[in-house]
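Marked as duplicate of an earlier ticket. Keeping the data here for the record.
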Amino acid sequence: MSSAGETGRLWTLLVRVRALRVHRCRRLLARMQQAAHEARVELMRQVTERDRHAARLPDILGLCGHGKQDATLWRSALKIHRSREAEVIAAVRTKQRALSDALTEVQVARIALQRALRAHEDAQHRKREATARLCDDE
């Protein structure tokens, strides 16, 4: 067997390997995009919860001034509401960081896919060249 034939088979095998890498990178990118989507949905849910929490404050404040017995009850409700505020804001920040991390992972996966595609295209080009040389030799 000629050296050109061996080179052709090597590049054929390499094209297959790199095609598998491209396929894996595409699947990884799809998973990362799904994770980013889920993180975005979670962030929106948490922002909605924060907005709902903030919207309750005027109602509670308005009820604090009515009647002595009711006012005491509503003041304790106000204390509970305010103590939960930091927790709600921290949850939003946590979801924002999770979304940021997920978007970074999407970008990393995209770059890996681009590299794999370039390597695959290069292997295909070299395979065609090796095949052409083999045909010229015969």
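See parent ticket for discussion. Residues 3-137 form a domain with the Helix Hairpins fold (CATH 1.10.287.1700).
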